[in-house]
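Worked example 2:
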Amino acid sequence: MADYAKILAQNVKAARKALDLSQEALALETNIDRTYISGIERAKRNPSLELIVKLAKRLKTTPGKLLTPTD
């Protein structure tokens, strides 16, 4: 089975960087603690579906794309 925490981590980080956003800026715009964003990007956090949707909207993508392997 795929490691969705790692897939989400890679995709959130890539999408954030593509939009030239810092973790702090993303955190402020989504009302999520910056350390939680960092935890997601390091695959240390397991965000809720609601949080994944919120991140996807701000990152101009879809929840499905955040959970799709890029390899």
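The longest helix spans residues 4-18. Residues 47 and 53 are 10 Å apart (CA to CA).
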